[in-house]
Amino acid sequence: MPISLKRQVYDQCVLPTITYGCQTWSLAKATTQKLRVAQRAMERKILGIKLADRVKCSEIRKRTQIQDTVDFVAKQKWKWAGHVARLKDNRWTLRVTEWQPRNGKRSRGRQARRWRDDIVKTKGHTWSRDARDRDEWRRDAEGYILQWMDRAS
Question: pTM surpassing 0.85?
Answer without folding.
Answer: no
